[in-house]
Design a protein that fits this description.
Blueprint lengths: L18 H25 L15 H7 L14 H6 L5 H7 L4 E2 L13 H11 L1 E4 L5 H20 L4 E2 L6 E4 L7 H7 L9 H12 L4 E11 L24 E7 L11 E2 L19 H6 L5 E2 L7 E5 L4 E2 L8 E10 L9 H4 L5 H4 L4 H7 L20
Parallel strand pairs: 1-8
Antiparallel strand pairs: 2-9, 3-4, 4-5, 5-11, 6-9, 6-11, 7-8, 7-10
């Protein structure tokens, strides 16, 4: 071996491998590529999280179909969740009228309010939801309800109220982050607004990781006769197949008693995953079978002050209130940090009043996905540099 003085590297030149060694390496690479191609062909457009094919066609069929990820044709389309949920159309109303929805308290193995973090984690993993006991004190609940009722009344007076049931049986109060400091403090889990907020914060961080964002924060007011929704999941807009973990978590701050007659949230416990961790919500799944299993469709029972945490893959819906009176709650959707704000919050973030902006904490700004509130142009678009 002689040193090549024109080389940009120091030391001797590398020794050329023997021909047989090179051929063996290329054959191994070729075999690996062929195996990957065979797996891809078997799934038409890819593999699931468990290595199983996600489709049942061929490359030719997929190419003839064209780019279809944004409509209801592709098996991994964002709309494919809608196709699955169509199985459940009208089912919540049917089961409610037939008296086939039980209280969760009728089943001694379903989650009960608890302050034990290990128990809460176990409930969340097994059933897709857990109940944080005494997350708010009675005075904290009272302060939030009073502010919610006042805001709802103001919006009705201004003819801007969002009524979600016929005959004004239910009202949605959007964007609570912009409508009261008591809500802002609860949304970022300050103990001053929710005494066990730090516990809820820790649980959500375990679900989604650090830096999770805020999808929405709105008040729910349900009077007698209102509140019923279709069964759904809270990540139905995300393309399938889903990974073996949720994209987010919907939490419900319970202001008044939750039970079947009072219009509590209906849920299908355990409908989010198998014992092995695989997501049950997948293309071709029989969702009605999940609802028909045990315990089936139940109304979550919880006293005022409870915080309900849910996995965004679990089947659930708003329940019909049949008892006299009104149910109050706040619902907040949180999502992993790489997912943009969902629902009405994304629009609200573009129109934060200056006086509210000044009250937002750095963490709340991060949750909302906003970092500046200065509408004036910057850089080459500002001042004398503006050309149009």
């Amino acid at each position: 071996m002689q040193e090549d003085v024109t080389s940009s590297t120091s030391g001797g030149l590398p020794k050329v491998a023997e021909v047989d060694t090179v051929v063996a390496r290329l054959r191994a690479e070729n075999a690996q590529l062929r195996a990957e191609l065979a797996r891809a062909k078997g799934g038409a457009i890819g593999l699931g999280v468990d290595g199983a094919a996600t489709g049942d066609g061929s490359w030719q069929e997929a190419m003839q179909l064209g780019i279809a990820y944004a409509d209801d044709r592709s098996s991994i389309s964002a709309a494919s969740a809608g196709r699955l949920l169509a199985q459940l159309s009208g089912l919540s109303k049917e089961r409610m009228k037939a008296g086939r929805i039980a209280n969760s308290s009728d089943f001694d193995y379903l989650p009960r309010p608890s302050a034990d973090e290990a128990q809460l984690e176990a409930d969340f993993v097994r059933w897709g939801y857990c109940l944080v006991e005494d997350a708010m004190s009675p005075s904290q609940v009272r302060a939030q309800v009073e502010r919610l009722v006042a805001q709802a009344e103001a919006e009705r007076q201004r003819d801007s109220a969002i009524m979600t049931s016929r005959n004004e049986e239910a009202q949605l109060v959007n964007n609570l982050v912009l409508k009261g400091q008591v809500f802002r403090d609860a949304v970022e889990f300050k103990a001053s607004a929710a005494q066990r907020g730090p516990l809820v914060d820790r649980l959500l961080t375990k679900v989604m990781g650090e830096g999770f964002g805020l999808g929405c924060a709105h008040g729910s007011i349900v009077h007698e006769g209102g509140g019923l929704q279709e069964l759904h999941i809270d990540q139905g807009g995300m393309p399938m197949p889903y990974p073996p973990f949720p994209f987010g978590s919907l939490i419900i701050w319970v202001y008044t008693e939750f039970n079947l007659a009072n219009g509590a949230t209906y849920v299908v416990p355990g409908s989010h995953r198998s014992a092995g961790g695989a997501t049950l919500f997948r293309d071709g799944a029989d969702l009605v079978q999940l609802v028909d299993g045990e315990p089936g469709l139940v109304a979550i029972c919880a006293p005022p002050g409870t915080c309900i945490l849910t996995d965004t893959r679990v089947l659930h819906c708003g329940g019909r209130r049949t008892a006299p009176g009104t149910r109050y709650a706040m619902r907040c959707h949180y999502n992993r940090h790489y997912i943009r704000a969902l629902h009405e919050q994304s629009k609200a973030n573009l129109h934060v009043p200056t006086e509210t902006w000044e009250r937002l904490s750095p963490r709340l700004k991060q949750m909302m996905g906003i970092t500046v509130n200065d509408q004036s142009p910057t850089g080459e678009l500002s001042g004398a540099h503006r050309t149009g």
